[in-house]
Every structure is written in C-alpha cells, then in structure tokens.
C-alpha cells in the first residue's frame, strides 16, 4: 500500500512539475515594473496573437459595472481587464464608444472642465489586428473603421512628445491607468500605477519605459486591474466601459 502511495505521489509530483513549467512558459500579459522609483503593472497585447475588446453592457443590457462581473461572464478566456475611459453617473461613456463595430456613443468634441476636456484628448481604437491611439480630431478625419474605440483624455504622449499642458511633476497625485501603442501598430500596452503618481511621471512611463510614441490617459482614482496570472482582481466604485484581452 505504501509503495502504491509512493508511486502515486511521484506521479502527482511529476504532473505538478509539468503544470508549473507550462504555466511559467505561458505567463499572462501583465508584468510588474518600476520607473523613476514608482511601481506599475504593464499589460502588453500583440493583436496578431490575441484580441483586445471593449465591454460596456452584459447580456442583460445592463453595464457590467465591475471587473469581477466581466471576469465571471468571460471565464478563463479573459487574460486581463481594466477600466477603459471616463463615464457618467449612469456608467455610460462620456465620449465616443464603439463595440463590435457599432457606434454606441458619438464623439464628444465639446469644451469643458476636467481631464477629459484637457485637449488634445484622444481615441484608443482596434481595427482588425491593428491598434491605435490618436487625437480625437485626427481620428474623426481619418474615418477609421473601428471594431472597438473609446475616447478619453488627455493624450499623454503625442508623436513622442508629452502633452504640452502636462507639467513635469505637477501637484496632482492619483492612481492612474492608460494605454499606449508600440511603433509596430499591432501592440497595445495598458498600464496602471500601484500608487499615486503625477501626470508627468505617468506620461514618461509610456514614452521612456514602454516605447509608446502615442499614449492616452484612461482614468484616475477608480483605476482598476484584473490580472489572474498575478492573482489580482481589484475592487472599486462602479465602472463604465472596460477593456480586456481574449484569445483569437
């Protein structure tokens, strides 16, 4: 009996080693990193290998409202998710929102207070296996046929330069999240700070550490991340539009 148990333990041990090696060989898209002494998590997705999708409402027609509810609906296919742009009290997007090729909210080009209206603001979009972050006016002029798009603001990095109204290290300290695009036009990088950071520090993260010549601020204070490979599922106030990655 003990010999059989020993053999079973050995077999289970080998199975665990195989599972651990496979898990190590296939990590999730999110990795912790530091820049200028601040801690962040960056989630990198190559759209030639995975799909980036936006999510607002579930099958019941109501906003998902949380990363946990989205994760429950999508199951293990969802490799990461985070909040994806500013929203109103009813959890509806403040600006342009496109999901599955359908424009559900039109672009917001009005002037006003707050970060969204700190122009130039911008649009993050997905079109097939291509991805982009561009100023709102440029997006509208280009007439991109987007599968997914969300408008937010301000732009953090524009053509390799920090937004002209973002100071090097201003007084505002918030937990922040945003998205940038690599020069190949196929790779999106989503990042969230682990603690409060300035706009300047967050913009430099994308430009200097993540090699994103264009990047967009998604939100602050409510910034949240779902990353199962990191055993992380943040709780926050109710959220509007969400973004996540699933297999192709």
Automatic annotation (TrEMBL):
Classify the source by domain of life.
Bacteria
Q: Which UniProt keywords apply?
A: Signal
Does the keyword section mention Signal?
A: yes
Signal keyword on record: yes
Tell me the ranges covered by the Phosphodiester glycosidase domain, including all copies: 79-227
Renumbered to this chain, the signal peptide range is 1-24
This chain belongs to which protein, by name?
A: Phosphodiester glycosidase domain-containing protein
The species is: Methylobacterium nodulans (strain LMG 21967 / CNCM I-2342 / ORS 2060)
């Amino acid at each position: 009996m003990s010999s059989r148990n020993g053999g079973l333990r050995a077999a289970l041990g080998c199975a665990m080693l195989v599972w651990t090696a496979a898990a190590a060989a296939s990590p999730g898209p999110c990795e912790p990193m530091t820049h200028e002494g601040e801690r962040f998590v960056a989630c990198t997705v190559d759209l030639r290998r995975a799909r980036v999708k936006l999510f607002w409402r579930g099958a019941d027609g109501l906003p998902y409202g949380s990363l946990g509810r989205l994760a429950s609906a999508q199951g293990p296919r969802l490799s990461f998710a985070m909040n994806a742009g500013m929203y109103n009290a009813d959890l509806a997007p403040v600006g342009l929102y496109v999901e599955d090729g359908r424009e559900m909210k039109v672009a917001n080009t009005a002037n006003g207070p707050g970060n969204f209206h700190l122009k130039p603001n911008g649009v993050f979009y997905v079109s097939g296996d291509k991805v982009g972050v561009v100023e709102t006016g440029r997006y509208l002029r280009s007439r991109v046929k987007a599968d997914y798009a969300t408008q937010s603001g301000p732009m953090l990095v524009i053509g390799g330069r920090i937004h002209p109204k973002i100071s090097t290290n201003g007084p505002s300290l918030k937990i922040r999240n945003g998205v940038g695009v690599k020069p190949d036009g196929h790779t999106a990088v989503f990042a969230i700070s682990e603690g409060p950071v300035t706009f300047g520090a967050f913009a430099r993260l994308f430009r200097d550490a993540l090699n994103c010549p264009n990047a967009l601020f998604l939100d602050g204070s409510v910034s949240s991340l779902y990353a199962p490979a990191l055993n992380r599922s943040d709780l926050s106030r109710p959220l509007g539009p969400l973004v996540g990655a699933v297999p192709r």
